[in-house]
Amino acid sequence: MALLNRILFNLIVLILGMSSNLCSTVPKTKTQKNLQREEILEMARLTRDQVFQQYPKAKKAAEEDSVGVAVFSNFGFKFMFMGSAKGEGVVFSHSTHKPTYMRMRELQPGLGFGVQRFKIVFLFHSEEALVKFIESGWQFGGNLLATANYSKQGLDFRMGESTSPNVSMYQLSESGAIVGISITGAKYYKDEELN
Asked: Boundaries of each Ysc84 actin-binding domain copy (predicted)?
């Protein structure tokens, strides 16, 4: 019962948060934008380090076989036949070393329930895949989700292959649980305010 109450509370908070984002028309100040950029860069550094520590092959691939990397922090929920997630992140091209700040929205039709915070690291193995991600940003995949168990550190790692050619994906769950089966469609797009 406590888990159900927690899930319902988180769903209400998420819905209110999404609706407040849609209604917000006040532009951010320069200071707010700089602070948000710094927070995203710090999240990306910490997440990348965690994934590379867990998956040494990912670190080697990032250094030797990739043209860029993207890191996103997301929050998702699933209730009955519908779910969604939203987040923010940054893409780095190894050739330009310039960050491109991005946002993410995901729909998860399919049976399931729960809430979860998670982070994703993408490795791009071709310039074409990197540019396509930044410019159009669609990622599709199927998930059989069963991340209801917690490790001692409160982290759950999941490695997977993106359905996009020349893109590898690593996922790190921070907290919460989503159980279910879904087909996901995520849209990654440039954050016009931060770029």
From this structure: 109-195
